[in-house]
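Schema walk-through. Below, the input block comes first and the output block second. Nothing else is stored per chain. Lengths vary across the set, and this one has 474 residues.
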Amino acid sequence: MKKSLILAIPALLLAASCAKTLPNVDLKSPSAVPGVYLVTSAERSLARSLSSTNQNGYISRLLVQYWTETTYNDEATYNLANRTIPDNVWTAYYQGALGNLNEAKRLISANGGIDAGTKANQLACVDVLAVHAWHNLVDTFGNVPYTQALDINNKTPVYDDAATIYTDLLKRLDADIAALKANPTAGSLGSADLIYNGDIPSWIRYANSLKLRLAMTTYDVDPARASTLVQQAAPNVFHSNSDAAQLAFESTNPNTNPLYEDLVQSGRYDYVGTNVFIDKQLVPTSDPRLPIYFQPVGGKATYAGAPYGPATNYSLWSNPGVILHQPTLPAMFLSYYEVQFLLAEAAARGINVGSSASDLYNNAVTASITYWENIAGVGNPSVDAPAYLAQPSVTYATATGDFKQKIGIQKWIALYNQPTQAWTEWRRLDYPKLQAPAVTYQGSGIPLRYFYPNSEQNLNNANRQAAATAIGAT
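--- output ---
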């Protein structure tokens, strides 16, 4: 694990068939905002944060070198300090996601018009989403305000230790899972839930899959505890691509996928694939996802990635794939193939999860290829996945390196539409081996965390400084 990440984050670093459109509710003149519809807003905000590649905040696709910029390359060379990237992400999580969820919790708790089982389910779903948002926030910044956060009367909340936050998040998930299991036939969020339409069994699988992710993230801190948590979660995680937590966008504004806004509506012809991803990884293995992830150069039959970092000619390189230009492409919160990779890693570390690392690795790769070919309407997964896995450089037994390298590289490929998590997994597993460009704004390697936002320096500087000192950063 990279030393800087340990300083920044102490030793830590949903189903397509159920995804829905926004509910039909009069938001122009409400007498009161129903708590469940604040969940709608929070889901939408979190989905946008996980999907966007907007240069003013969401640059994970650049940090893990899926893409680079050809013209305006500030973000590809890590100009975080002089821009509002940390501020925008901080605000999106605290206000757009966590703020709405906190208010939803308050309103649902105070609602005397729903039965106890329904209320328990609604609150558990709200908290699962909050855990997801919190862990992304911690993974991005390190120590953050947590116990004193979201209090409008406290303008200067203290920052909590990242490892302590993770411990509490895992406890919260256990409580949420227990509450959901206790009320399997009660109501829930219903049509306000854009991910699962309030389906409780789906939420239970999502919560367990999230527990698995957080447990594996903390493995290096406490292997025994992580192993126990993994074994608890493993039987109840996603079992197929149809279980995945994702949110389907609409074809018209303002509810289109932000990728569509970034790649089409913005008119910014700047993002292209990198040579480290296309030329060195996807092309040599004839990866069946290549023509889905990217387009051939200039309408030809060849693919080419640009050098990462320096400005170059946009027309010379492969652009993001056609599917990524679609306004309705779902935002992926947590995928089945990620879950299979997590279980493969657990098995490789000696945790009994009911299958071998090799079989789970094969399941993960197959699920990724199947997901992408099905959503793009191309290829034949039953043929393409086995052929890809049969290559010595891909087969688990013969691929280069230890389990971190084997799993890390294939996970990097699979998480193409989960760039936030891809960045976390790259920092955690140390693979693939990526190199920063020769010239960067901060004069060092690839960022392992975001700087604390300028707003915190202006409004909460004493606590910000204490947190920065604790992790040896800014």
